Amino acid sequence: MSTIIPIGPFHPLQDEPANFLLTVEGETVVDIEANMGYIHKGHELLGQSKTYDQVVIQTERICGICSVTHTVCFCHAVENLLGIQIPKRAAYIRTLLGELERLHSHLLWVGLAGHFLGYNTVFMWAWKYREPVLDVFEALTGNRQNASIMKVGGVRRDIDEKHFPKVMEVINTVRGQTEMLLGAVVDDPVLHSRTKNVGVLNYEQAKNWCVVGPTARASGVDTDVRRDEPYAAYDELDWKVIVLKDGDVFAKAAVRLLELLESIKIIEQCIKQFPKGPILADVRSIPVGEGIGRYEAPRGEDIHYVRSNGTNMPERWKVRAPSYVNIPSFHASCIGQTISDVTITLASCDPCYSCTERMAVAVDARSKKVLYTGDDLVRMGQEKTRRIAKELGRPADLHLTLE
Amino acid sequence: MNSKEMMFFLSEKFPGKVQFESASEKRLYIRIQPENLREIFGYIVKEKNGRLSTATGLEVRDGIEVLYHISFNGSPLVTTLKVMTPKHIPELDSVQDILKGAYWIEREIHDFLGVVFKGHPKLKRLLKARTIPEDIYPLRKDFNQEEFLANKG
Question: Is the domain defined by B3-151 classed in CATH 3.50.50.60?
Answer without folding.
Answer: no
